[in-house]
Here is the input.
Amino acid sequence: MRKKYQKKIIEICKEAITFARVSSEKQERGASIDAQKELIKEYCLKKGLKIIKEFEITESSTRGDRIKYNEMLDFIRTRKKKTAIVVNCVDRLQRSDEDNPALNKLRKEGKIELHFMKENIVLDETSPVHDIFAWKMNVLMAGNYTDSLSYNVKRSLVKNWNSGKWQGFAPLGYLNIHDEDNQATLIRDSVRAPIIKYIFNEYATGKHSISSIWNEACRLGLRTKQKKRKGCLVSKNTVYDVLTNPFYYGVMCVKGEYFPHSYEPLVTKEIFDRVQDLFVKNGNRNRNNIVEYAKTPYTFRGLIQCKECGCLITPEKKVKNNGNTYIYLRCGHPNKVCHQGIVNEDVIIQQLKNEVLDKISLPPKLRELVTKKLIQDLNDTSSFNKKIKTDITNRLIELKTKEDALLDFYLEGKLPQATYEAKQEQIAKQRQELEATAEKYKTIDSSMKENICKVMSMSCNISEIFDKASPTRKNQLLKILISDCKLNGKVLEYKLKSPFDKLIHCNDYKQLSSVVIEHLDEFEGVCI
Here is the structure.
C-alpha cells in the first residue's frame, strides 16, 4: 500500500528524561532539587516510563542563553525514539513563551511528550487544542509571576537607594556587616579607610600623578578585597576608581543616578572636588560616569559624525570677550585633511526644530483632543481584538472537535480515505489561516496603553519639552528621535526613527490616533 494511504501510527512513549531546575545556587543548597527528583521518579514508575537521563539545572528560565536547557533539547533531537520530558510543573521548565516554538516543533514531529505533573497535563502530537491552551496559559502565568517578582525587587532597591542604603558588596574602605537588628549595613574599614583618606589628601595637593599615588598606596599596604585577588596590593586602575568614586564623600552613584548615602564619609566634598578638577586638568577621563566632573553635558555629544571623513563631531564651549557663551560643533579629525568647518550648535538646533520638532508638536487644545481620541480608540481596539481572539479560539476548538469526529468516521470505515484526506487538508488550512489571523490582533493591556499615551503626549509637545530641557535631556530626546546623523557643511543629514517618521507625515491631527493603532508595536517599543 502506498505510504500516503497507510494509517499513521502513533508511537507509544516508553522512555523519559527528568528535568529538575532551580534558579540560583542558594536554592540549589536547599531541598528543592531533591524534592523535585523524588516526585518525578515516583511519577515515572507509575506511568511505566524508563528514565534514561536526568537533568539537574541551576539557571534562570528567563535570563541568559539557558545552556543546560538547550543541551537537553539537543540530546532529544539526536534520539530516534520518542522521549518524555517529565517536570514537576510548568514553571520549572519555562517561564517565557520564547521557548514554545522549539518545544512545539519537537512535539508536532512526534519527538517528545511533555509531562507536567502538578498541572496534570500530558502533551504529544495528538493533544487537543484545549490542552495546548492550558499549557500556554500556565506559561503566561509563570511569566507574569516572574515579572511581578522582578518589579517588586527593583522597587525595593529604589526605596533603599532613596533611603541612603547601599546594595551589594561594600566599596574599598568599607566593610559589610549586620547591625543589632540583623539589618545589612556598612562600617569603615579600620585598615583600608585611613590609607584611602591619605591618598585623597595627597593627590589633592597637585604633586602626584596616577602612577605616583598608586605607588604611595602600595607602600602603605592598600590591599584589594576582590575574591580572585584577595590580599594582593591594589592595581593602578583600582586606585583611579577609588579617587573618582563620589561614595567617599557621601554620595553613591547607581546606574548614572546619585543618592546621598547614610554612611560615614572618608573625605570632604571639597577634597573630592579638588581631586576631580586635577583629573580634568591633567587630561584624565573619568570612568565612573560622574558627569559634573569629567564631562560637560552637551546636546549633540556622541550623536553626529562628519560626512566627509567619518570622525565624530565634538561639541566645545567658547566664552566671548563680552561674556556670552556659545557651543560650537567641530570635526574631531586628528590626522586627516577634512574641509568640514566649525558650526554653531544653534544652527543645527534650529534646523531640527523647523524640520521635526515643530512639525510633530500640536497646540494644547489639539493635544487634548488627540489624547482623548487615542484613549478611546485604544480601548475600542483592545475590546475588539479580545473578542476576535476569543472567537478564533472557539473556532479552533470546533475545528479540533470536527477533526476528531472525522478521524472516528474514517477509522470506523464510514468515510473513504480520499474524502478523509481532503477534509483533513481543508481543516489544516483553516487552522493555519485562523492562527495567522490571531497574530494580527495584538493584546493591548493597561501597561501598553499607558506607555503609548506617554509617547504620544511627548511627541505632541516635543518642541516645548526640548526648549525647556537640559543639554543631557535634549541629548536623550534626540537619540529617541533621530539616527545616522552626518554633518555636511552647516546642514545635518539624519534619519527620523520610527514611529516618529509616521507622525511627521500625518497632515491631519484627526488621523494621528489611526496612525498609532496601525503601528502599535513601534509605539510600544519607544522607551522615554
User: Anything to note?
Assistant: Residues 174-294 form a domain with the Hect, E3 ligase catalytic domain fold fold (CATH 3.90.1750.20). The first strand starts at residue 15 and ends at 22. The chain has four domains: 11-155, 174-294, 304-354, 364-400+435-460+498-524. Residues 364-411 form the longest helix (48 residues).
